[in-house]
Amino acid sequence: MPNTPAHPATANAADDPRCIPHKLTAPLPVGDACRYPDYTAEDQEVWRTLYARMEALLPARAADEFLTGLAALQLERDRVPALADVSRKLSRATGWRIARTPGLLDARDFFSSLAQRVFPCTDYVRSRAELDYTPAPDCFHDIFGHTPMIMHPRFADFYQRIGQAALRCQDPAVEEGLTRIYWFTVEFGLIRNPGGLRIYGNGIISSSGETLHCLTDKVRKLPYRPETLAAQPYDIWHFQDPLFVIESFDQLEGEFVRWAKERRLL
Ligand SMILES: [Fe+2]
Predict the structure, then answer these.
(1) How many CA atoms lie less than 13 Å away from 127 in the CB half-sphere?
(2) Around ion ligand 1, which residues have CB less than 5 A away?
(3) For residue range 12-36, what is the model confidence (pLDDT) as tens digits?
(4) Is pTM beyond 0.90 here?
(5) Which residues are known catalytic residues?
(6) Domain CATH number, residue 176
(7) Has residue 60 been placed in a domain?
(8) Counted domains in the chain
(9) 2 alpha carbon, distance to own chain's centre
């Protein structure tokens, strides 16, 4: 099962060492054990640029729940946040912690972390040439994109359930379905908020192009049902179409648990 590539990927992604999954031979540092890297001035400037650009796009586009999580995290705008700090805030809110990963993880290692409420997070910043996309997650995708949703109790539980279900998966066809469910929810999910359709998918929220594109009429919006998502192939090379809309995070988790239990994954 693939890990969670950032989006859209580049044509030469397969040659990029960041795209080669790491098979762990030792535990990742977790929480306070994640040391703050020696970021360059350029790294910090790229973080500031990405943050400012995405923050301007969030109103009326990002889900209320994402904005609530982002506000509660109080991520630094002017410097790359420390994983240890973000981990402490997540831990207080939902019992999740952050582990520092050197890049994409082997699927089993990745889902094993999720099952333990540990989010594997990169700490390197994309280059200035990659402001609009990266072939693999960087810390803007992981911290800005992913961690605000993990502050939401129901999303946090759903995310752990995904990890637990993936670890039990033996059937390649079911595994593919689970990968698609992950893709169309965690990375590319939409929700119907009181104010209208909003984004909660991290792959969208860390890409300005996808953020601007996904709510337009050019993209089909279909109701969330795990069976439908599991049957829907995706293409990492282009903007996503269709996208799937949840009514609530209770529905997201409840329907996923039903789907997984029917397949003896939970
Ligand atoms: Fe991701």
Answers:
(1) 3
(2) 4, 202
(3) 455 677 778 888 888 999 999 999 9
(4) yes
(5) 141, 146, 187, 206
(6) 1.10.800.10
(7) yes
(8) 1
(9) 13
